Amino acid sequence: MSMSFERYMLDMIQPMRDDLTRLGIEELRTPEAVEEKLPNAKGTALVVINSVCGCAAGQCRPGVAQALQSEKLPDHLFTVFAGQDKEATAKAREYFAPYPPSSPSIALLKDGELVHFIERHQIENRSAADIAADLSSAFERYC
């Protein structure tokens, strides 16, 4: 039995994608989808740069899930997958200046402008509860 590397990777990362999409977060898989959604997202938009790394699984995705239990929430929820949907991720990162590429990471935009950003180094050494509290505070302030 033979399986292509691409098929293998798609099967392996699907549960990592599902961690966010089952929360109602919309995947943007192409640069065109990013260009259609991010500049036109009126109000606030959460953008999660997903990743296969352990800190994405242990802290980032669970932290996002906890934060989405907050009273105030962003108007739009999006995700791109670093290392998988490379062109879409690169296009989304154009909205996160002056921050360098970082995955996982979490951005909050208001009317297309970056207002809050959590970089990888702020994820990998913190708990999911800390990340959720950080996001909830940003939601309270901007949403």
UniProtKB/TrEMBL annotation:
InterPro entries per the UniProt record, alphabetical: BrxB/BrxA
Origin: domain of life: Bacteria
**What stretches pass through the bilayer?**
none
Write down the Pfam families for this protein, in alphabetical order: Disulph_isomer
Q: Which family does it belong to?
A: Belongs to the bacilliredoxin family.
Annotated NCBIfam families: YphP_YqiW (TIGR04191)
- Quote the protein name from its UniProt record: BrxA/BrxB family bacilliredoxin
Q: Which organism is it from?
A: Paenibacillus lycopersici
